Automatic annotation (TrEMBL):
Family classification: Belongs to the radical SAM superfamily. 7-carboxy-7-deazaguanine synthase family.
Residues reported in the UniProt entry to bind substrate: 12-14, 27, 98
EC main group: lyase
UniProt KW Aminoacyl-tRNA synthetase keyword: no
Name the record gives this protein: 7-carboxy-7-deazaguanine synthase
Subunit structure and binding partners: Homodimer.
Species of origin: Picrophilus torridus (strain ATCC 700027 / DSM 9790 / JCM 10055 / NBRC 100828 / KAW 2/3)
Transmembrane segments: none
Record carries keyword Magnesium: yes
Chain positions recorded as S-adenosyl-L-methionine binding sites: 100, 147-149
Cofactor binding note: Binds 1 [4Fe-4S] cluster. The cluster is coordinated with 3 cysteines and an exchangeable S-adenosyl-L-methionine.
Pathway: Purine metabolism; 7-cyano-7-deazaguanine biosynthesis
Gene that specifies this protein: queE
Length: 249
């Protein structure tokens, strides 16, 4: 059973509730949002710096994995994915489905979960990193990392906020919410969304907008102060702090 991926690697989770946890990342192609850009790009092999230079005047940041999920990627058999996990796993780890928007590939996510479970590999939990605009898979073994997009993404609200889908996520057992924060206006907009939908602050993480280690260090202090002010959690970006601009590590 061959499926198309753009990356497969073993690292640690860099963000949110499970930051620091060993994790297998399975990155799918495609996304329904093009955060930071004025116009969508066709799939192809791009340099991330080139994409960054296309940033819309209405956006505060550009998706830092766009070059990856736009790429042609590779085809891999599900059994090879399971074999990769079984050879490297030791002790407690998560399996993280990411993108792009991984829920575009929900049928393949379910196939991988079934294959992993059939081998009795028992990850601590499955994570799906989603923008919160697509129908969730209802399964208590899945933790949802929901990164709702703010106006700083440059995307229209009608594209980035789906009220019906948000309410469905709120009914699930394992959900946490993440907002990328560039400035105080972002924080205030996030608070408005939280209040509008009744999202509890102890399940929310503010994360600094950053593409490099220098930007992360520069922006973190202000975001931490806003976390203290509004009573939400701070999310690091360990992958940027440790590896800087490198991805897939």
């Amino acid at each position: 059973m061959g499926i198309r991926l753009v990356d497969l690697f073993y690292s640690i989770q860099g963000e949110g509730r499970y930051a620091g946890k060993p994790a297998f990342f399975i990155r799918f192609p495609e996304c329904n949002l093009f955060c930071g850009l004025e116009k969508p790009l066709k799939p192809g092999n791009y340099d991330q710096e080139y994409i960054n230079n296309l940033k819309s005047v209405n956006a505060g940041w550009v998706c830092d994995t766009m070059a990856q999920w736009l790429s042609n990627g590779f085809e891999i058999d599900i059994n090879d994915i399971v074999d990769y996990i079984s050879r490297l796993s030791s002790g407690s780890y998560n399996i993280v489905f990411t993108g792009g928007e991984p829920l575009i590939n929900r049928s393949n996510i379910l196939k991988i979960i079934d294959a992993v479970n059939s081998k009795n590999l028992k990850p601590y939990i499955y994570e799906i990193e989603t923008n919160g605009t697509m129908e969730p898979i209802e399964d208590d073994s899945i933790s949802y990392n929901i990164s709702l997009k703010l106006s700083g993404s440059g995307m229209k609200r009608s594209k980035r906020i789906n009220s019906n889908i948000i309410r469905k996520f709120l009914l699930l057992k394992n959900t946490w919410w993440k907002f990328v924060i560039s400035n105080r206006n972002d924080a205030m907009e996030a608070i408005e969304i939280m209040d509008e939908y009744g999202i509890k602050r102890d399940s929310v993480y503010f994360m600094p907008a950053a593409f490099s280690r220098d930007e992360l260090v520069k922006n973190s202090v202000e975001v931490i102060e806003m976390c203290k002010e509004f009573g939400v959690n701070y999310s690091p970006r360990l992958q940027i702090f440790i590896y800087d601009k490198y991805v897939g590590v």
